[in-house]
Specification:
This protein is mostly helical. The chain has 2 domains: 34 residues; 94 residues, Orthogonal Bundle (Cytochrome Bc1 Complex, Chain D, domain 2). The protein has 5 helices and 2 strands. A two-stranded antiparallel sheet has the order 1-2. The chain is elongated and about 80 Å long.
Length: 150
């Protein structure tokens, strides 16, 4: 028996391995897409107001300081669970008003704390932004972030 791999054996291992791992990649991608489409996103809750709130989020570049579901900058708190932190569904009116008033009151002027700039956002845009936060909070994130502290 020969000591090394022949060219044809090496070629067969290469092509066989490539095909095997390509099939595994396709299967994992299909599983991820089916999970996302079936469980993760709250498609039923997507309303015009939620879409407008996302546009407000993008227009004011909130992601430059905040994270949303772990994506974005880490300068300011996570906002994927801000709805829960302000009371959530159990206290929906309190949460809605609390988030709006928090945004309106910025910057607080407390020395030694990071300050959010003041954004001149209309009440209808604030309502839409809060609807976006509420919808984002309803996404199945598989327990991310691990705590509600933000």
């Amino acid at each position: 028996m020969s000591e090394g791999l022949t060219k044809s054996a090496a070629r067969n291992i290469f092509f066989g391995g490539t095909i095997f791992f390509f099939v595994v990649l396709i299967a994992l991608a299909a599983d991820s897409v089916s999970y996302i489409n079936s469980q993760s996103t709250n498609v039923a809750g997507l309303t015009e107001s939620v879409a407008r709130g996302k546009a407000v989020w993008e227009r004011h570049s909130c992601i430059n300081c905040h994270t949303l579901l772990g994506e974005g900058a880490y300068y300011a708190p996570e906002l994927g669970n801000v709805w829960t932190r302000f009371g959530g569904e159990a206290e929906a009116d309190v949460a809605r008003d609390g988030i709006k008033e928090w945004i309106k009151s910025q910057p607080t002027g407390i020395e030694g704390r990071r300050q959010m700039p003041h954004f001149d956002i209309s009440d209808s845009d604030l309502d839409a932004l809060v609807d976006f936060f509420r919808w984002t909070n309803s996404i199945n994130t598989q327990n991310w972030p691990p705590n509600n502290a933000g």
